[in-house]
Design goal:
The complex is a heterodimer of chains A (about 325) and B (about 300). By secondary structure, chain A is α/β, with parallel strands linked by helices. Chain A folds into 2 domains: about 160 residues, Rossmann fold; about 140 residues, Rossmann fold. Chain A contains 12 helices and 14 strands. Chain A has a 7-stranded mixed sheet, sandwiched between helices. A 5-stranded mixed sheet of chain A has the order 9-11-10-13-14, with helices on both faces. With about 300 residues, chain B is of the alpha/beta class. Chain B has one domain: 3-Layer(aba) Sandwich (Rossmann fold). In chain B, α6 links the parallel β2 and β3. Classes of the chains: A alpha/beta (about 325), B alpha/beta (about 300). At the A-B interface, α3 and α4 of A face α5 and α6 of B.
């Protein structure tokens, strides 16, 4: 059974920030929701409460960057770019300030509905010049995201998971390196964040059904390693499936499509994720099933690609569940 | 720097330069020179502690935007002197005042007059809306309302590092229509950022015309005080009053000086264009000629020779 790690961000941030005095912790009234309440209480001199005022927070952080500080901005992902987009552009991204945008509750990992779900954040962030985009997919990556983000010479946006998180990987987060999780020859599957766990589950059943999957997990979404993706895509028989906790427009599916098109690679591509739709409020398993972001959706897409029924159903996937991951997760409150 | 001119002389020089530029180019941000000349002259000529410029007197052409591939990128802040702990920093929040700010750099010996010839020319860094790389600019402020927040962040950081230099933001009154301005004031007060001060050109004008006809903002001074700032209200053309306001104690709070000004100060002939003063573009050659004749007389100079 996979190990569940409780609140890895809280510990990782505190450990790192204490060793780096130019790192500052900023929060926009979501301090406990972003697991930095303990840090605030123990290290108030390194913590700035910015209130519910994200436009000011982004420009203020730009000013802190100008003074040589490296502010980590903590709030939900949506609040880092929707309202303060202009400030993000002018005060942070353009001048390449070392501002670390820690976006919690990426995609449908919140029951908060449209206003809380960052479903287009990758699309927005990757089109911003000078911006780096990272995403965490397990406890090990969350533990490593603070140091990884702070290694970036410029602004960086991170999709961060919180709460109880499975540990899928035993090697640290390395910026620019994708993880090759399996090296099958039938289909290439590209995932990131919480969809990686779904793909691992699907792989177990697909292996048993005789479908050989090549599986890549992306921690770095920008810069995007198109060359390596193409190498892997070239080595599979049927084509590529991307599965992302995000709209299919502008995210991983788009990046893969752009790479394949520019290389003239005539292979099929199926993009799973939110299909030009908003989501609504609900539990993570419900939303992943409802919007086709789960293991079963991936299996069905691979069947479309190969033209072969696998006979895999929900029960079969349940048997290969890598762990009882979400039974231990706290209620996904705000 | 050595003050070779009085602040009054610098202010007059700013109006003359911006007028000359506007005549030659058949348009310009003329009313901003009328309202803000004393404020910018005061900042550069006496209020701010700035070092000698560290960039060429004649600005270099545009050298690219910031990127990982452009390691030699520099902002225009070098015209305000080097970054030293004891020197002040200045942001021009309404970036469309750039023409007035450039004229101030020339009048205070920080930029060569040739710099203004490059204004708004393709490939030049002397841009119409002041950019980071434009002379005297350090950050982008072209979208109004972001300047004070950036200043507050920089000031907090400088204070934390024990630097004695202050951060000054030159603001415009239209910016109080933006919510971010109020977020910035409350944050600066909440965090006790008192090495931050601002002087606001309250000329009651904005792009569409008189502010009261576009969006009433109420009493700015009362609102600023309620959000936590120390506020002084002055006649923005009264330099002794400006000096006195700058000396106002503001421990634990930012200081905002509201400089009430006239958008036609020193160029009374412009009043006939009221309330459309944001960017003065001459409607006819006759109007241009009349403006040239009458305003030149008000400024004590000969009419400008311009090509038609």
């Amino acid at each position: 059974m996979v190990e569940m790690v409780n609140r890895p961000y809280a510990r990782a941030f505190e450990d790192y920030a204490l060793r780096h005095p130019d790192v500052l912790c900023l929060s926009a009234d979501l301090t406990s929701s972003c697991e930095i309440d303990g840090f605030r209480d123990r290290h108030p001199e390194q913590f700035l409460s910015m209130g519910m005022a994200e436009q000011n927070m982004l420009s203020f952080a730009g000013g802190l960057g100008l003074a040589g500080f490296r502010p980590f901005l903590h709030t939900f992902g949506v609040f880092l770019y929707r309202r303060p987009y202009d400030q993000l552009m002018a005060s942070v991204a353009y001048p390449r300030r070392k501002v670390r945008l820690m976006g919690f509750l990426p995609g449908i990992t919140t029951p908060g509905g449209m206003t809380h779900q960052a479903i287009e954040d990758v699309a927005v962030m990757r089109t911003i010049p000078n911006m780096t985009v990272l995403e965490t997919g397990d406890a090990t990556e969350v533990e490593g995201i603070v140091e990884a983000a702070d290694s970036i010479d410029g602004p960086v946006y991170c999709r961060v998971l919180r709460g109880a998180i499975p540990r899928l990987f035993d090697t640290p987060f390395r910026v620019g390196q994708m993880r090759v999780l399996s090296e099958g020859g039938d289909v290439l599957v590209v995932t990131a964040g919480i969809t990686t766990e779904e793909a691992i589950r699907a792989r177990g059943a697909l292996d048993a059904a005789g479908v050989s999957v090549r599986h890549l997990h992306l921690g770095t979404l920008k810069p995007f390693d198109a060359a390596q993706i193409l190498d892997h895509a070239a080595s599979v028989r049927h084509g590529v499936v991307t599965l992302e906790n995000h709209l299919v427009a502008g995210g991983i599916g788009t990046m893969v499509a752009e790479a394949m098109a520019e290389a003239g690679m005539a292979k099929r591509l199926i993009r799973l994720g939110l299909q030009d739709t908003y989501a609504h409020g609900g539990s993570r398993p419900y939303l992943m099933r409802h919007y086709g972001l789960d293991a079963l959706a991936l299996v069905r897409a691979i069947e479309r690609l190969t033209g072969q029924e696998t006979g895999i159903d929900e029960a079969a996937l349940g048997e290969v569940r890598v762990e009882d991951v979400h039974s231990a997760v706290k209620a996904e409150a705000l | 720097m050595q003050n070779e001119k009085t602040t009054e002389e610098v202010a007059l020089g700013i109006r003359r330069r911006v007028f000359e530029h506007t005549m030659r180019n058949n348009g310009g941000y003329l009313s901003q020179a009328c309202s803000a000349a004393e404020q910018l002259a005061f900042l550069y000529n006496e209020a701010l502690n700035l070092g000698q410029p560290v960039l060429p007197m004649i600005p270099e052409p545009f050298r690219g935007v910031p990127s990982a591939d452009n390691p030699h990128y520099v902002t225009g802040a070098g015209y305000n002197g080097p970054f030293e702990p004891h020197f002040d920093r200045l942001f021009i929040a309404p970036a469309h005042y750039a023409l007035v700010a450039y004229a101030t750099l020339i009048e205070t010996g920080r930029m060569a007059p040739e710099g203004l010839e490059m204004f708004n020319k393709d490939g030049s860094s002397v841009e119409m809306i002041g950019a980071e790389h434009s002379p005297g600019m350090e950050v982008h402020n072209g979208t109004l309302g972001i300047g004070l927040s950036t200043g507050a962040g920089l000031a907090w950081g400088r204070k934390r590092r024990g630097e004695t230099g202050e951060v000054c933001v030159f603001m415009s009154d239209g910016e109080v229509q933006e919510g971010q301005t109020w977020e910035a004031v409350q944050a600066a007060a909440f965090h006790g950022i008192d090495n931050l001060w601002a002087i606001m050109d309250v000329n009651a004008q904005q792009c569409d015309g008189a502010m009261d006809s576009v969006m009433e903002v109420g009493d700015i001074a009362t609102k600023l005080r309620d959000f936590g700032a120390v506020v002084c209200e002055i006649d923005g053309h009264d330099l002794p009053a400006m000096r006195q306001a700058k000396a106002e104690p503001h421990e634990g709070r930012p200081l905002v000086i509201l400089a009430h000004t006239s958008p036609t100060q020193g160029m009374g002939f412009l009043r006939q264009r009221f309330p459309r003063l944001h960017y003065v573009r001459f409607k006819t050659e006759e109007e241009r000629a009349a403006m040239n004749r009458e305003i030149a007389a008000e400024l004590g100079i000969d009419p400008i020779a311009y090509s038609h």
